[in-house]
Amino acid sequence: MKAIQSKMARVALGWGTRDLARIANVSPDTVARLERGERLRESTVAAIREAFETAGIEFIPENGGGPGVRLSRPSSGG
Fold first, then answer.
1. What pTM value is reported for the model?
2. How far is it, in rounded angstroms, from Cα 70 to Cα 60?
3. What CA–CA distances, in Å, run from 78 to 41, 50, 57, 61, 63?
4. Which string of b and e fits 26-51 if b means at least 16 CB within 10 Å?
5. Averaged pLDDT of the chain
6. In DSSP terms, which residues pair with 70 in a beta bridge?
7. Domains parsed from the chain with CATH numbers
8. What is residue 46's predicted lDDT score, i.e. its pLDDT?
9. Contact by Cβ (8 Å): 7, 69
């Protein structure tokens, strides 16, 4: 998961950084560090990614058009 994908996923879900932090059980600073492109532990990134995927986000790999996200099913919000 790239920094821009985290930002796009949050916007798609209507989540702020604090919402994501609460749902992924990480600190808001950790979310900010991820979205600045700083390197985090794999387990931390996995927890954040799992929070997004549980909420219905599907990560699209970089395929010539750049990395992205999409909603795989309607979300109930955060």
1. 0.85
2. 7
3. 24, 14, 12, 24, 29
4. beeebbebbbeeeeeeeebbebbbeb
5. 90
6. 58
7. 3-71 (1.10.260.40)
8. 97
9. no
